Amino acid sequence: MINIIVAFPKMENAKNIKSILVKNGFRVNAVCTSGAQVLQHADMLEEGIIVCAGRLQDMMYIQLREYLSPHFQMLVVASAGLWEAEKSENVVSLTMPLKVHELVGTLEMMANSLMRRRRKKGRPAGRSEEEKQMIQKAKEVLMARNNMTEEEAHRYMQKSSMDSATNLAETAQMILSIFR
Questions:
Q1: Does the CA dihedral 158-31-98-73 come out positive or negative?
Q2: Average pLDDT, the chain
Q3: What pTM, to 2 d.p., does this model score?
Q4: CB burial of residue 27 (10 Å; 0-12, 13-18, 19+)
Q5: How far, in Å, CA of 171 to CA of 99, rounded?
Q6: Angle value at C-alpha 140, between 135 and 142, nearest 5 degrees
Q7: Each residue of 52-108: pLDDT tens digit?
């Protein structure tokens, strides 16, 4: 099953998109209103599809794409003007007004692409429970020692991970070894 995260600045719109997807046989893992929430859920899933608006509460889709793992595909639902002004690689777009059959068909195509990639790599998707616990413990350490919120701790770990070219679990392990 493919992991899907739906993100729109208005929760009502996000829930409507989720409802459409669920009715058409997709499993939606999370519904978000901000890019930070998307990144937090994406780090726990490791791969999947993000269905989002061109502009979220805290960032544009282009910024979100930069922070996401390359194992995620992005489907942006936006007005033609926004999309034409800011085209980006590795992003599929649908223009407003949205047609249900276009959304479902595009998502099926993207899901098939992810499934093929997963079969080629021959690796299971997702993090082990041990890695998830280690990441959570590292966040808790950062929150306690640096007076951070969970989102701030997560973003810090994510940026550190990107800067040091390590995955999030390795970064969590480094943080835990430093503060023990």
A1: positive
A2: 85
A3: 0.64
A4: exposed
A5: 42
A6: 95
A7: 998 899 998 888 888 888 888 899 988 776 655 455 556 888 888 888 999 999 999
